[in-house]
Amino acid sequence: MLSLSTIKIKLAILRMTFLLVLALLGMPLCAKADKVTDWNAIGSTAIANDGRGGAVGAIDLAYMHIAIYDAVNAIDRRYTVFAVSPSNVPPGASEEAATVEAAYRILINLFPTQATFLDAQYTTSLATIPDDDSKVNGMAVGAEVAALFLASRAGDGRNAPVTYTPGSGPGAWVPTSNAPPVAPWLGQMRPFAMESPSQFRPDPPLALNTDQWAADYNEVKRLGAFNSSERTPEQTTLARFYFDPGVVQASLGFRKLALDRSLMLAVNARLFAVLYVTLADSIIAGFEAKYYYGFWRPVTAVRAGDIDGNPDTEADSTWLPLGTTPNHPEYPAAHAFADAAFAEALRHFFGTKKIEFTLSSTTTGTVMTFDNTNNIIKSVIEARIYAGFHYRNSCVQGTMIGKQVAKWVAKHYFLRVTN
């Protein structure tokens, strides 16, 4: 009969063997947050508290994650510098401390009104790091990188007072609320990775006298109407799923992906920088095209189908979309270029489109889990048509922008250093 001590030893050996097998298979032993994912959540909250939802939030998070990446990478030294390098990186400097300091310095600069919230988060976050020279040196690296990066972005056009005067007549965008057009400065600010905002400007929207325009018009008229009898309940849920603020929705997905894969802090620093640089530049490119072309939304076009010169577009003066139309020009579709950007960035980063990625929606209270990045893009295209916000061609062209930006970033930035 085995003794109790022998049984305990055998159980310990079995447990160690099981853990070793999991490690060899690349399976996560647990999902654990780190300072990168922590500060992504903190940054998202600060942005929401400041009332900067939607596309502009992605720009703000790009600032933060670039600074985190350059600070952590200055210590890790495995990849190319994105924007700035600190003057001194003492051996053993803490990557965690560098992350906290860089993130805090960027956010407190961009959102001084959130000082109370950010100061409390900063104190709590630093308190979990041992008080030693490694911490002090990491904080110094993060502080210097943040200062250098902010200086490098001076005058880049963020929040610039850009005005936009809509056109008139068939095809011209008409504002969908009494508020000013949403962030026309986005299309004119200096990109983070692209050479110019217009680098990936698509061809013009469909001519109003074409068969394809009539097909797109009638598709959204049928399926995107508030009282559509052709849109199925499942299609309605899909449309409403993406009514959540896009940046908040995507950020939750990014954090879940990082946690599910138990990625190291330095890997997360690079991953989140890649995602937000790609996302931000796709938004800059997409909004440049939006305000350059100034194309009308379905809520305007369907009510004015009798003036577009196309005999196959019958007007409906009472037509309304499923949701409230965003107050910026239609072409190209913002959700299409933004979601395609991060989906394609994930494909490039992990080297495969077969990635499990989960998005959740507070609007519908549901979750969607994708096993392929192409399916993320497909779902967004359909959702924006069912919502009555966009034509199919606009969604397709939007995804092309996102893919082009992702390819550009993957080819030119965040590259492995070869000695």
Entry summary:
This protein has helices at residues 4-24, 35-49, 55-76, 95-110, 115-127, 133-152, 211-223, 233-241, 246-261, 265-293, 298-301, 334-350, 373-386, 392-412; strands at 357-361, 366-370. With 419 residues, the protein is mainly α.
Walkthrough of the structure:
It contains 14 helices and 2 strands, in the order H-H-H-H-H-H-H-H-H-H-H-H-E-E-H-H. The protein has 419 residues and is mainly α. The protein folds into 2 domains: 35-152, Vanadium-containing Chloroperoxidase, domain 1 (Up-down Bundle); 184-412, Vanadium-containing Chloroperoxidase, domain 2, CATH 1.10.606. The protein has a two-stranded antiparallel ribbon with strand order 1-2.
Question: What's the layout of helices and strands?
Answer:
Blueprint: H1 4-24, H2 35-49, H3 55-76, H4 95-110, H5 115-127, H6 133-152, H7 211-223, H8 233-241, H9 246-261, H10 265-293, H11 298-301, H12 334-350, E1 357-361, E2 366-370, H13 373-386, H14 392-412
Antiparallel strand pairs: 1-2
Helix pairs in contact: 2-3, 2-4, 2-9, 3-4, 3-6, 3-10, 4-5, 4-6, 8-13, 10-12, 10-14, 12-13, 12-14, 13-14
Average pLDDT confidence is 93
Domain unit count:
2
Task: Please give the CATH class of the largest domain.
Answer: Mainly Alpha
User: What's the N-to-C terminus distance?
Assistant: 60 Å
Radius of gyration: 24 Å
Q: Strand order across the biggest sheet?
A: 1-2
Main pleated sheet:
2 strands, antiparallel
Order of helices and strands: HHHHHHHHHHHHEEHH
Binned strand content: under 5%
CATH architecture of the largest domain: Orthogonal Bundle
* Low-confidence residue ranges: 1-30
Structure annotation, total helices: 14
